[in-house]
Each structure stands twice: as C-alpha cells, then as structure tokens.
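Q: What structure does this chain adopt?
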Amino acid sequence: MELLTLRNQTFTWGDRTYVMGILNVTPDSFSDGGQFNSVASALAQAEKMVAAGIDILDIGGQSTRPGSAQISLEEELERTIPVIQAIRGRFQTVISIDTTRAAVAQQAIAAGADIINDISGATFDDQMLTVVKELAVPIILMHIRGTPETMQSLTDYQDLMADLKTFFQARIDAALVLGIPPKHLILDPGIGFAKTALQNYDLIRHLQDFRDLGYPLLVGPSRKSFIGHILNESDPTKRVWGTAAACAGAIAFGADILRVHDGPEMIDVAKIADAIWRPKWSGES
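A:
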C-alpha cells in the first residue's frame, strides 16, 4: 500500500494505527447528538482531540444511526461547512467530511477538508466518484445495504465476508476506471451497518480476509449496539470500555484506522495494542 500524505501528516500503513475522532454536528446522532451542534462546541471538542493527538477529525452533519431519515442538502451544508472552516482556521489536523452527497463533499473540500468519508461506498450519489477524481482527494468506501432507515432489516447474507469483498471489488473497479489513484482508496467494512451483533464480531475477527484487496482498512466500532448487546448496556456513552476492547481486537486483526468518539482514550488503546501486535511499531524512544 502506497504512502498517503495529507497536510502535515504521512500515513505509513502498517507502521501504526491511526485514530479518527468523530465530531457529529447533529442534534440526533445515536451517541453524541446535540453535544457539538454549534460552531463553538464543535471547535472546543476539536481542540480537545487535537491536543490528545488525533490523526483525523471526521465531521458529519447527517445522522446515520439505524432508522435515521435524511435531512435536506441545505441543512447538511449549514451544519458542516462553518464547522470545517472554523477548525481549519485553527488547526492543521487532517479533516474528513462524513457525507454521501457529492455537493457536500465538494463544498467541504473547498472549506478545508481533506478526505471524503462515504458510508454508502459512493453508491447513493452517482456523482461522488467523479467529484473525488476531480478534487484529487482520498475517499473512504464503506459497505452498507439499503439506507440507515432500512439497513437493519437487510442482515441476511449468504456469505458475509464474500459478499463484502464482492461489494468492495465493484467499488474499487468503479473508482479505478475513472482514474482515481489506488492510494486514494480506503475501505470500511461498515460495523453496525446492515449487520447483526454477531456478524459485527465475525467481521472484526476476519478483517485479514480483506488484506488481499490491497487497501487500508478503517474500522468504526465506537459505542455501537453490538457492544451493548454483550454488555447489556443500553446507554452508548457507557460503552467506552467495550469500545476499547473492540478497538484492540480490530488492531490485532489488521485495522489501519479506528473511527471513535472517545479520542484520547482510544489513542492510548491504539498505542498499547500497536506495541503488542505491530512488528513495525517504533513508538518507544
């Protein structure tokens, strides 16, 4: 896998785990809805995560929790663009825009974002890959079935890993045909998106199965219901220890990036997990 350099950050895949901090500027996200949906509160949270050493800040204006309905384009832009501009005015940290809309991606990159994070794998908007090519930015392609409104009724797979690999290969091919360079593609198996609790655990256990596709892997287990399922914990904010275990497991099985709410805590988890499982880890001075 080729190195990826964005702003002052070089991603050397395999050397260590990179941590993406979630910053939902929404009133209704499943875990942190309403906490950061003003520019001031979002900027304060960004400052906290940057100080902890976060590698990427992921800004999202559209909730993708199970059952969530889509908001208007105008509302998504109003939520995300001022926050991206404010963060970019203060920090050089890499920023990703969590969106499925090409128009939002375009304006977010113009405002200072560096990566597009598309939960639909660029299937909801047929202009998304064209925009990625034109802007020459990386895209994270996530696996999903249906939409956030319908996905949890679509968990019946003939072969979970084979189905995901087929999906990814089709999306990779679509990107490469347009001329998007391979180093601009990152894959996300979509923990919690059209998967049951047990399927999510299987997915983490078999992350290495995606290695032969040849792209970095992002895993987003943070505070999700598959953790609550085992812990019998309905409050997502009380799933931090469970998230830590899921993150350590994901690193052991080959994750390159973790997408998390609890940035400082999971940065610590990643450092120790890397020291145990990554032979190229060089964090000890």
